[in-house]
Write a structure and sequence with these properties.
Elements: H1 2-9, H2 12-34, H3 36-65, H4 71-103, H5 106-111, H6 118-152, H7 158-169, H8 171-187, H9 191-211, H10 219-224, H11 226-233, H12 246-258, H13 262-299, H14 323-329, H15 336-351, H16 353-371, H17 383-409, H18 420-424, H19 429-459, H20 464-491, H21 500-504, H22 507-529, H23 538-571
């Protein structure tokens, strides 16, 4: 036993795990010692989310359970659907994070130069990617499962078993995501592979748009045959009960154990365990050499990641003006140095696959939801519910934008790095560079948010006056959120760090997202309480609209003003 213990202690993988765990713990303690405010804010929001989410899930499940004969059916279908979509999101998240961690990570490049096996390096990066991709999933479903257990009055052993099953479940999307990342990284430079991916994406979107249509239910069916009507309404969720989906095994085990049917629960748990052991052992023993070959291929390509869609630059990488230069040259009202900064930032954004990949994921999911609004708008006949859905869409778009601005806009100033003094000595100056970044981010994000909100209002068949109102609101919120992100990015810079994820995880990034969330909640409250511009008392509605504009102006303008003042210290 002593020899085995010594061998495990000297294992490179365990050494990496131990060192990074100690490093993370020390960073957490350092944050607590250096910033009590940051620790208090994070603790408040974590506890607040857990309590609020639990209350919402608990009361929602209690409400569903009140329907005799239907509550159990609705709850079970909810669990199957939830875990199926979370599995898809986990797979996508693992794919993006694994690609970055395996092939665009400085630590990985450093480890490859050490006398450490390729399999060990892959195993460590696989564990790290899986943890980064799954912690939000665990944080999201914890209140739901606790509320489900209390409503169903399950025994105590339901909770440890559920934790074990979820631990097994998150390994599968991690394995599949890393396998996809290796496959994409290996063949990304092949034009045939790129075209195939693009065609598959278009076919998938067309299939989803054609297939995901609601089945209209007439009033006679609702009055006479409730179960049949419910089955027709939930017809599009039947795919979540496909027996070969890992989410089906997890949902089946959890639901059967809650019902006290131990034999079925153990069967689903055994299926989940066997698949996790098989694919997990396959990844931990066979993916190392594939990872090394793919890393060599990725690092041997150009800095743009091997994409041959060179619409951002001239063909062949020559110094001739590319598409972006030609486009911005037509914007004659912009100064040449401003156009150069805009071209540089857009190219840097395009070359970072993780940035535009996550942006597509953020707004792509929201866009898919908005497009599907046309399938049930005929069931919304009350103006109250139409406006309620419109405000919910506005809130979803605003929170999406807050995530994007915090993740991508906030670190823009810090990413200039230690070369910031060179930029500061240029005739352009830091102030104009920051303003260029602000306007570029604002205009780019406005094109997406305004299109989504306008499309959602149009699909809800709202009059054009209401469409114009929501379009104006999202425009104001877009400029405010970008101003907040850019201003705080200047006030809390981290020019020593080159990883935007680590820049965002600091005090400034956390504060940016917290303030963005508070602003969105306060703005929506003002708009809803004020009647959304449709209040019977015009004077009262006008007061609330003025308050919303004043709040947005303060949130967007004050951090920018303070940030521009602080730039004088950088230039001094």
């Amino acid at each position: 036993m002593s020899g085995l213990a010594a061998q495990l202690k000297s294992s490179p993988l365990l050494l990496l795990l131990r060192v990074n765990a100690v490093h993370s713990w020390r960073r957490l303690l350092a944050v607590r010692e250096q910033s009590q405010l940051l620790t208090g804010i994070i603790s408040f929001f974590v506890i607040g989310y857990l309590v609020l989410a639990f209350e919402l899930f608990y009361h929602g499940m209690q409400f569903i359970a009140k329907f005799p004969g239907l509550g159990a059916v609705l709850t079970e279908r909810l669990m199957y659907t939830l875990f199926a979509f979370l599995f898809a999101l986990l797979l996508l998240s693992n794919l993006i994070i694994s690609y970055t961690n395996l092939f665009r990570n400085r630590e990985t490049a450093f480890l490859l130069t050490l006398p450490v096996s390729n399999q060990t390096i892959f195993n460590w990066k696989f564990i790290e990617s899986m943890v980064l991709a799954s912690w939000a999933f665990l944080f999201l479903i914890a209140p739901l499962l606790v509320a489900f257990g209390l409503v169903r009055d399950v025994p105590w052993h339901f909770y440890p078993l559920t934790v074990l099953l979820i631990g097994l479940f998150i390994i599968l999307p991690g394995v599949f995501g890393s396998a996809l990342a290796i496959g994409i990284g290996r063949h990304l430079d092949r034009k045939s592979f790129q075209i195939t991916l693009l065609l598959l994406a278009l076919v998938l979107l067309a299939f989803v748009a054609f297939w995901w249509k609601t089945n209209p239910v007439d009033d006679d069916l609702l009055d006479k045959r409730t179960l049949e009507a419910l089955d027709r309404l939930l017809a599009k969720t039947r795919f979540t009960m496909f027996p070969f989906l890992p989410s089906y095994w997890l949902s089946g085990a959890v639901l059967q154990w809650a019902e006290g049917i131990a034999s079925n629960a153990v069967f689903f748990a055994a299926v989940l365990l066997s698949n996790t052991l098989f694919f997990g052992s396959l990844a931990f023993t066979r993916f190392g050499n594939l990872f090394y070959d793919t890393a060599s291929a990725v690092q041997s390509r150009a800095s743009n990641g091997g994409f041959k869609f060179n619409f951002l630059r001239a063909a062949g990488g020559s110094a001739a003006p590319g598409f972006l230069e030609k486009f911005f040259d037509k914007l004659v009202w912009l100064r040449p140095d401003t156009r150069a900064i805009a071209v540089k930032d857009l190219r840097m954004f395009w070359r970072d696959t993780t940035q535009w990949g996550q942006s597509v994921m953020f707004f792509g999911l929201l866009g898919a939801y908005v497009i599907n609004l046309r399938n049930f708008t005929h069931q919304l006949t009350s103006p109250f519910w139409i406006h309620a859905v419109a405000f919910l869409n506005l809130g979803a778009c605003a929170f999406n934008l807050a995530s994007v601005t915090t993740r991508f806009v906030f670190p823009q100033f810090s990413l200039e790095g230690r070369r910031i003094w060179i930029v500061g000595m240029s005739p352009m100056g830091l102030a104009r560079i920051v303003m260029t970044k602000y306007w570029l981010a604002s205009v780019g994000s406005l094109a997406i948010t305004l299109a989504l909100v306008t499309l959602s209002c149009y699909l809800l068949k709202m009059p054009w006056s209401d469409v114009a109102f929501f379009g104006a609101v999202v425009t104001v919120m877009t400029f405010a959120l970008n101003g907040l992100a850019v201003g705080l990015g200047v006030l809390f810079p981290n020019v020593k760090e080159t990883n935007p994820n680590k820049i965002v995880s600091g005090f400034g990034g956390t504060l940016c997202f917290v303030l963005s969330s508070i602003y969105i909640i306060a703005a929506l409250a003002l708009l809803v309480v004020g009647g959304g511009g449709f209040h019977a008392h015009i004077a009262l509605a006008f007061v609330y609209m003025v308050a919303f504009v004043a709040l947005s102006f303060a949130v967007g303008w004050l951090p920018m003003r303070w940030g521009l003042k602080q730039l004088k210290n950088f230039e001094a």
